UniProtKB/TrEMBL annotation:
<dbReference type="GO" id="GO:0005524">
    <property type="term" value="F:ATP binding"/>
</dbReference>
<keyword id="KW-0547">Nucleotide-binding</keyword>
<keyword id="KW-0347">Helicase</keyword>
<dbReference type="InterPro" id="IPR044742">
    <property type="entry name" value="DEAD/DEAH_RhlB"/>
</dbReference>
<dbReference type="GO" id="GO:0003676">
    <property type="term" value="F:nucleic acid binding"/>
</dbReference>
<keyword id="KW-0067">ATP-binding</keyword>
<dbReference type="InterPro" id="IPR000629">
    <property type="entry name" value="RNA-helicase_DEAD-box_CS"/>
</dbReference>
<dbReference type="InterPro" id="IPR011545">
    <property type="entry name" value="DEAD/DEAH_box_helicase_dom"/>
</dbReference>
<keyword id="KW-0378">Hydrolase</keyword>
<dbReference type="InterPro" id="IPR027417">
    <property type="entry name" value="P-loop_NTPase"/>
</dbReference>
<dbReference type="InterPro" id="IPR014001">
    <property type="entry name" value="Helicase_ATP-bd"/>
</dbReference>
<dbReference type="Pfam" id="PF00270">
    <property type="entry name" value="DEAD"/>
</dbReference>
<dbReference type="InterPro" id="IPR050079">
    <property type="entry name" value="DEAD_box_RNA_helicase"/>
</dbReference>
<feature type="domain" description="Helicase ATP-binding">
    <location>
        <begin position="1"/>
        <end position="123"/>
    </location>
</feature>
<dbReference type="GO" id="GO:0016787">
    <property type="term" value="F:hydrolase activity"/>
</dbReference>
<protein>
    <submittedName>
        <fullName>DEAD-box RNA helicase</fullName>
    </submittedName>
</protein>
<dbReference type="GO" id="GO:0005829">
    <property type="term" value="C:cytosol"/>
</dbReference>
Length: 123
């Protein structure tokens, strides 16, 4: 668990070790190897951008699952297999309940801003 001010590198603090852990393997269809749960789509998009920057040369795939985006496009990404899944709770639950995603192969779990999610009623 880590607490720090905005702009101090918390995202790098979990993204860089995740990239190292996942660099030796491949994802299977609908079975991501890691999950980053974020309270808002804006924060999730920011994490996805950071992942693109930090993992530019690592050949890891990612999917961003948030409301307000095409669910069909997100399902297509999942069917190809993703190493890193970045999601908001609502969209993740929706796809999970529809049987579009399996969480049995998760090796790394990050709950970003867990206190904020609890404040929002996701306890």
């Amino acid at each position: 668990m880590a607490c720090a001010q905005t702009g101090t590198g918390k995202t790098a603090g979990f993204t860089l070790p995740m990239i190292e852990i996942l660099s030796g393997g491949r994802a299977k269809a609908r079975m991501p190897r890691s999950l980053i749960l974020s309270p808002t789509r804006e924060l999730a998009a920011q994490i996805a951008d950071n992942f693109d920057t930090y993992g530019k040369y690592c050949n890891l795939s990612k999917a961003l699952l948030t409301g307000g985006s095409s669910m069909n496009d997100q399902i297509k990404l999942l069917e190809r297999g993703v190493d890193v899944l970045i999601a908001t709770p609502g969209r993740l639950l929706d796809l999970f309940e529809r049987g579009q995603i399996l969480l049995t192969d998760i090796k790394v779990l990050v709950i970003d801003e867990a206190d904020r999610m609890l404040d929002m009623g996701l306890s």
